[in-house]
Amino acid sequence: MFTGYCIDVFTDAINLLPYAIPYKLIPYGDGTNNPSGTELVRLITAGVYDAAIGDIAIITNRTRMADFTQPYIESGLVVVAPVKRMNSGAWSFLKPFTRQMWGVTALFFIVVGAVVWILEHRLNDEFRGPPRRQMITILWFSFSTWFFAHRENTISTLGRFCIDSLISSKDPIGYQQGSFTRDYLINELGIQKSRLISLKMPEDYAKALKDGPRNGGVAAVVDERAYIELFLSTRCEFSIVGQEFTKNGWGFAFPRDSTLAVDMSTAILRLSENGDLQRIHDKWLIRSACSRQGAKLEVDRLDLRSFWGLYLICGIACLVALLTHFLMMVRQYIRHYSPELDSSGQSTSARLQTFLSFVDEKEQEVKSRSNRRKLEMASNRNESMDNHSSKRRHIESPPDASNEA
Ligand code: GLY
């Protein structure tokens, strides 16, 4: 008697066939080591078996040897590693970033708020008022960008990112004995054979991960998601890091051009549509408490290095905006105030104070005051010219001529 997830799927599917198929299940392997799935498929082509039933991933070099049914489960490769699990609480939202990253982020929000305040202060009534209100405006402006600016979703490539960093490290990586994963890691990802550690049982995974790379263990294990979900269901101290980085599924293998492969595919689709496939999955592969969080938790933390380019661009943009604003203000100040300053003989500190109150003034007010002043000066000039010319006429004309006039 053989029992298990794959056997249940097989017997339920074969019972749905419109004809009877007598079959005999023969165990494959020595009962101690995990046998190779690819070798099992090869034994079909060699005529040793009529079909192969089991957790056989449908991969290219196997489909060249045999015909596969539709996949009855999806099970791409994932990376599993030890995690320091923190309790979820009110401050869990801070966890994605390091402290340093949060510090610089907060600083930049305030810097950007201050720059916007400087740029808006002279033009926009909402950035004016008592100093306390303006402080609140700066902080509120920075804070509100968190919630009002983001409209697009981000799609994570962390799965890819995570396996890339694993590849570039020198740490040992565990894989399931007999699985196609070893060939995939060597041939597709270019990982050195010497870094790969073969592991048999879930207990071996746990020990190797706990020991870690410095004590003869591994930094991570790469295996198919279906196995890892089961492994994590009782081991909350480990977690999948990132997401699936390949798309695979398991199927049953039959000799090339076998009509049975087609009929079994139809039966598997029916099992999927009537919910039986899910029921069998839940019976064998969903266990308990930490399977959900364990399987889905992502532990990638971003730090300052991941963002310094962004902050550099932001800093340069702020600096250019501030410089332009400052130069424009100085130009305006010189245009509006230089005639008065030249004649007033003010001290440097008084001039600085005048400049600061000019900076604080609303641009519209400066312009209208300056226009008023120009008009006043023009009318004063006219008046003095009138006086001057009447005096001249008075001096130039003799008393009798003046009388005549
Ligand atoms: N699921 C393991 C393999 O197909 O090699």
Automatic annotation (TrEMBL):
Keywords tagged on the record: Glycoprotein, Ion channel, Ion transport, Ligand-gated ion channel, Membrane, Receptor, Transmembrane, Transmembrane helix, Transport
Biased composition (Basic and acidic residues): 362-376
UniProt-listed InterPro entries: Ionotropic_Glu_rcpt, Iontro_rcpt_C, Solute-binding_3/MltF_N
Region Disordered: start-end pairs: 362-405
UniProt topology in membrane: Multi-pass membrane protein
Listed Pfam families: Lig_chan (PF00060), SBP_bac_3 (PF00497)
Residues in Ionotropic glutamate receptor C-terminal domain copies: 1-287
Entries under SUPFAM superfamilies matching the protein: Periplasmic binding protein-like II
Name of the protein described by the UniProt record: Ionotropic glutamate receptor C-terminal domain-containing protein
Organism, scientific name: Salix suchowensis
